[in-house]
UniProtKB/TrEMBL annotation:
Organism name: Nocardioides jiangsuensis
Name by which UniProt lists this protein: Allantoate amidohydrolase
One matching Pfam family: Peptidase_M20
PANTHER family from the UniProt entry: ALLANTOATE AMIDOHYDROLASE, ALLANTOATE DEIMINASE-RELATED
UniProt record similarity statement: Belongs to the peptidase M20 family.
Keyword annotations of the record: Hydrolase
Keyword Coiled coil tagged: no
Superkingdom, taxonomy of origin: Bacteria
NCBIfam families: hydantase (TIGR01879), PRK09290.1-4 (NF006770)
Key word Coiled coil present: no
Amino acid sequence: MSFEQMWRDLAPVGRSASSGGYHRQPFTAAEREAAAWFVEQCRARDLDVRTDAFGNTVAWWRPGPGGSAEGAAPGAAQAAEPGVVTGSHLDSVRDGGAYDGPLGVVSALAAVDLLRERGFTPTRPLGVSVFVDEEGSRFGLACLGSRLMTGATTLDGVKELRDRDGVYLLDAMAAAGLPVADGTEVGPGGGTAERIGCFVELHVEQGRDLVHRDAPVGVASGIWPHGRYRFDFHGQANHAGTTRMEDRRDPMVTYATTVLAANEQARLAGQRATFGRVDVHPNQTNAVPSRVTAWLDARAESRAHLEKMLADVERLAGERAGRDGTTVEVVAESVSAEVVFDPALARRIAAGHEGGDWPLLPTMAGHDAGVLSAAGVPTAMLFVRNPTGVSHAPDEHAETADCLRGVEALADTLERLAGPR
């Protein structure tokens, strides 16, 4: 099946008729439908599909006659050498774009098809993967599936996570039919002995660097460190009409001033700071709120820059709270360290393409590739040009011609990594 046909088949799943954006929240019907589509595609290619207790799936193309899984003995994956894996995720942020995640999955399947058309047979296991809950948009922890698979996060450490409706993570997993939720003891790897020896993730670029370079494909050099921080502002609920301005203890004012402070600090330092989610109590038009909870997404070129920016924002928020008669508490909900992808692997992937080497560029967005890299897996990323530069929104885009160049680049990469050495 062609890349274009797979893209058309997957495109309607979880799409909003009003905005054109996507709502594939993890462990919901739309995301599970997309996951089932992936398994169907893998089985149609005679790949050996393995899903761990958390819902992460890797479908293996094993060395052997015809290069397929046919005839492979049960449990063969456990005895195999570490494989080369490519893929991404199928969940989305709320009202997200079509390409973030699914482009890497569809391109991985298309790359397998292209390699078979070339007559290629892998000399080491080659896997196509989908990791669950990469975005963290439902339970607040990004790259949840890959963190659980690698042991970077334990089940005990996340079982109290709840979504905005109060649904616990394990309950959501149980509703999706995942075995991790049945009380069985599960260790790192989700109860599977699958081994990833190298990981390559293709992703739509979340910016316009490749547009400026006039290049359809690029290779990642690393990922900026980033974190998600919850700010709890507390004040005193009161009447919006009868309470004099000077008598108020309004946490909304403290919050609003903190948003401006974060924006200024990030601009001055050339970093990133975004308050993108807020919860207000009691959330009444005619009442001064008693509490405002807001989430800061902060990203910086180094850990030192990230820590300094956060410290500056906390200090300014505390100073403003003192003047407003309010209080503020800050909790780090998710922090990811800087990732430097294997330089030799990145250069090897970027080198020797028609028209010259693919450009190397950093990314400010988090990815499952970063989690695997931190776990010691040699890891690389390919980016496909995004003419709008928009991501996590319906205007996210990639031209079909560039997507097909991405498939070719990914197939070339996998042939180098999973072929004769």
